[in-house]
Design brief:
There is one protein chain. With 125 residues, the chain is mostly helical. It is built from six helices and no strands. Helix 1 runs antiparallel to helix 3 and helix 3 packs antiparallel against helix 4. 18% of the residues are buried.
Length: 125
């Protein structure tokens, strides 16, 4: 399994399966809900990357920290809505709310791709 495939599975586990309803409903406005979600999600990511690259690899911790910060920022929702509006991709009404979720997920996956590149040995040769 590739690094990106492993990160995508970790993402599905952390962002969908292990995220509680309380976290999902409250993380936008409640830092405790956000922090608990980000910690659980990135514990999964750290476990995956640490198993692959070793827990003594400093790049693993730097990548996990970057992903955690960006994840918490994006999951406040307003940054995603702001970007969507600037790109003309925002929801037109309440029934289009799924567009915001898909846009958010797309950004998360792009960041996982960037993390994969950062951790790739070929990038640093």
């Amino acid at each position: 399994m590739t690094v990106l495939e492993s990160l995508l599975l970790a993402h599905l586990l952390g962002d969908w399966i292990l995220q509680t309803n309380w976290q999902a409903v409250n993380k936008r406005h409640n830092w405790r809900a956000m922090l608990s979600h980000v910690v659980v999600y990135h514990a999964v990511v750290l476990a995956v990357l640490g198993a692959r690259f070793g827990f003594e690899n400093g790049r693993v911790y730097a990548v996990v920290a970057g992903l955690a910060i960006s994840h918490a920022f994006l999951d406040r929702v307003w940054p995603v809505e702001w970007l969507m509006k600037r790109l003309g991709a925002g929801p037109r009404n309440d029934s289009d709310r799924w567009l915001t979720v898909m846009f958010d997920q797309s950004i998360h996956i792009l960041l996982l791709g960037l993390a994969t590149l950062i951790l790739s040995p070929r990038v640093w040769l």
